[in-house]
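Need S1-C subfamily serine protease's 3D structure for a figure. Predict it.
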Amino acid sequence: MSNTPSFSPLEQWSAAMADAVSAAAPGVLAVQTRHARASGFVWRPGWIVSSEEGLPEDEEAEVVLPGGTTVAAKVAGRDPTTDVLLLRCEGATASPVVFDAAPLRAGEVVITLGAREGLPLVAGGLVSLAGPAWRSLRGGEIDARIELDLRLRSGAEGALVLNAKGQAAGMAVFGPRRRVLLIPAATIERVATQLMAHGRMPRGYLGLSLQPVRVDACSVGAMVMGVAAQGPGAAAGIHQGDIIVAMNGQPIRSVPLLLRALGPASVGTVLALSLRRAGEAVEVQLTVGERPAD
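Structure prediction for S1-C subfamily serine protease:
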């Protein structure tokens, strides 16, 4: 009779998940500032991705490496619209995370892997919702809507999400009403590359100060309260007091929705704006500019 121990499927699965955590943990780090703590991971040698909302203010940070060694880091760029933060840290020498491009499906098992005081911080759960690309409340373009049914602990925002194969699928962050969302790998790669090159994500710019106004009993518009000199609006011939009632043939539903449409892809596009000027209908063409740095 064989003396080889037998393992149940549950034991085998548990051991496989623990092995996946051990394999990925060297690239996952704790990040702390004067005001907040979060997790992050090595995206490129010397570059760390974390959650912008998890570390919202300070530009100087410390990274706690596996084992507890603390090294200095500096914010290289942040994009609040997609919740991606990029830090420069020469001490982050672990191998960069390699993402699995396969999309997650509802019902798949996932693990979040963060870090606290140099130790792995792990939670497990399921993909509760898997949908198409969407636009965040701040106007960011996110490549898939993935919600996770798990508990994300304090300090774990920015954690790496591992799929059932033990491969990285994206980053865990808090969404509205503290839902746990996944920022997909494709979004991270696109945004972090821009932040590394330019320090920020480009945003569309109209050069107009807008205020909602009732046009008639069942529609609203955006009244122009100010026009920036040399801005796109001025170049298009828009005047203070004009009311924008439609954009590209679509009625204006609200000023926030109009501004949310001005994502990175909008820069350089031409908008057909329908205006009311002193009661008269006016049509103008506006070329969207890039928002100046704050």
